[in-house]
Amino acid sequence: MRRTCALALLGALSHGTIAASDSLPRGVGPEFARFYTGKATFACIANPSITLESSQINDNSCDCPDGSDEPGTSACSHIDPLSPEQPLPGSLTGTTNTSNALPGFWCANAGHIGNYVPFMYVNDGVCDYELCCDGSDEFARVGGVQCENRCDAIGKEHRRLEEERRQSKERSAKRRRTLVKEARELRRRVEARVIALKDEIKDLEIKKGELQTKFDEVERSERNRVVKVEGEGGKIGVLAGLAKARVAELRGALDKVLDQRDDLQDRVNQLEEILTKFKEEYNPNFNDEGVKAAVKSYEDYAAGKTAEKKSDLADTDIAEMMKEDGEASGINWAEFEGSDAGDVDVVYNWEAYLPRPVSDFVRDKINDLRVWAIANGILADSPKGTSESRLVTAARAALDAAKDDLSSKASSLEEQRRDLEKDYGSDDIFRALKGKCISGDVGEYEYELCWNDRTMQKSKKGHGNTNMGNFVRIDKELADEQERADGKSLGKGERIVLRYENGQGCWNGPNRRTDVWLVCAEADELWRVSESEKCVYKMEVGTPAACEDVHHQPGVRAKDEL
Ligand code: MAN
């Protein structure tokens, strides 16, 4: 614990490599030198009204309330050290009555980096090499402890690691520049696609207009043509079929009427025979008035019948009519039914006898007239259920194809335009990562991050995959985490955070979401995944996309990018 606090404090208080001069009292850091030199007496730094003899400095007795008279001993270590957040001397407004005016014991660390060590570490019998590699904090050799000066070796190793870090940073920055170049190229392609699509759409609009005109013309001219019924010989064929059926019906009815007529004629003949016999054989001497009147009526009937005109329609004529189709006087329906010669041919045959320009002119005029008549409801339009001509079908297909092409190109243009407006981060950097994924094993799951797309939790036990959120936007947030030895930590400072939301619903909870925190690294790597709240995930990811370009100033292009 003691070490942790000290490290934090001292990390913040490293001030370069200047070692204190020999004439300074032990433990005085370079920033405080002016308070200890060129004066006969010493004034406490935060309480200058209190003056002390020079001999009282580092006499192992804490005389100043701010501890400034003991820069090189632990005598004032009970006073809280100067907080790293407080300003250093020059203005001492930050010091309070209860805090030490000095941040610690100054360890010059020649050959490495000078550093402040907490006063309580001074002469505590422990060599604090990581803070004070020259061992000067253990000058009293408490308990016989003698700390050798290891600054050369430690300094060398430190410089080696620093150089490694610098080179890594350089490589990361280079990788980032490559990504920027790729992103720029991808953007250029989208822009080129937008231009190309605009041109294609313009051409297609013209083509669509032409095809529409053509279709209207074809439809207009074809509309009034006699249209065939599928599988039949056309309108005339249909008419012939209907007429044939009707004639057959009438012929049947006539046949029955003729039979009834013949029956009735037989009965009339029998009755006439009876009455003739009655007239010849009755006795007129009986003077029966009723019988006389009946005989008279029959004589009148018989006289009238003789004068009756013969019917215009002879039985022979009727017999002729009753003959079946195809016979001498019948109708040859086959000529009309299912004839290969279409009605259109019949209708248009006359054109063959006219010179071409005349036939075109006449046909157009007739067509115009028929179209006008159809449009005004005088003539019926093509009946439903009839097939349209191949010409109209082809014109319609060409027009529909152009319309489809146009609408798919228009939506593709819209999509590309929207893409250009999307936020892909500074320098459009995430455009270069779009479509790529990285993954890492954490516990019972494999986690996957697909840039600009989604995050995924994949069960290693075969329980399926769970969407942890879909990419929504790029944000920034402040990280405040301890550095890790391997460098794979969020550390402190502003970090890019990618928000993924609306993932798979959590049982009894909201939809899953993920915050993806990015830290500069040489390669894309998923470091850690945590679930702070149920179904709220945090991914920590190293990527060159999050690096600063060391050679790159905003608005200025690096040489190799041009
Ligand atoms: C699964 C995983 C966990 C999550 C629970 C919630 O087990 O997605 O991360 O916490 O479901 O029920």
TrEMBL record:
<dbReference type="InterPro" id="IPR009011">
    <property type="entry name" value="Man6P_isomerase_rcpt-bd_dom_sf"/>
</dbReference>
<dbReference type="InterPro" id="IPR044865">
    <property type="entry name" value="MRH_dom"/>
</dbReference>
<keyword id="KW-0732">Signal</keyword>
<feature type="domain" description="MRH">
    <location>
        <begin position="435"/>
        <end position="549"/>
    </location>
</feature>
<dbReference type="GO" id="GO:0006491">
    <property type="term" value="P:N-glycan processing"/>
</dbReference>
<feature type="coiled-coil region">
    <location>
        <begin position="247"/>
        <end position="281"/>
    </location>
</feature>
<dbReference type="Pfam" id="PF13015">
    <property type="entry name" value="PRKCSH_1"/>
</dbReference>
<dbReference type="InterPro" id="IPR039794">
    <property type="entry name" value="Gtb1-like"/>
</dbReference>
<feature type="coiled-coil region">
    <location>
        <begin position="151"/>
        <end position="221"/>
    </location>
</feature>
<feature type="coiled-coil region">
    <location>
        <begin position="396"/>
        <end position="423"/>
    </location>
</feature>
<dbReference type="InterPro" id="IPR028146">
    <property type="entry name" value="PRKCSH_N"/>
</dbReference>
<keyword id="KW-1015">Disulfide bond</keyword>
<keyword id="KW-0175">Coiled coil</keyword>
<dbReference type="Pfam" id="PF12999">
    <property type="entry name" value="PRKCSH-like"/>
</dbReference>
<protein>
    <recommendedName>
        <fullName>Glucosidase 2 subunit beta</fullName>
    </recommendedName>
</protein>
<keyword id="KW-0256">Endoplasmic reticulum</keyword>
<dbReference type="InterPro" id="IPR036607">
    <property type="entry name" value="PRKCSH"/>
</dbReference>
<feature type="signal peptide">
    <location>
        <begin position="1"/>
        <end position="19"/>
    </location>
</feature>
<dbReference type="GO" id="GO:0017177">
    <property type="term" value="C:glucosidase II complex"/>
</dbReference>
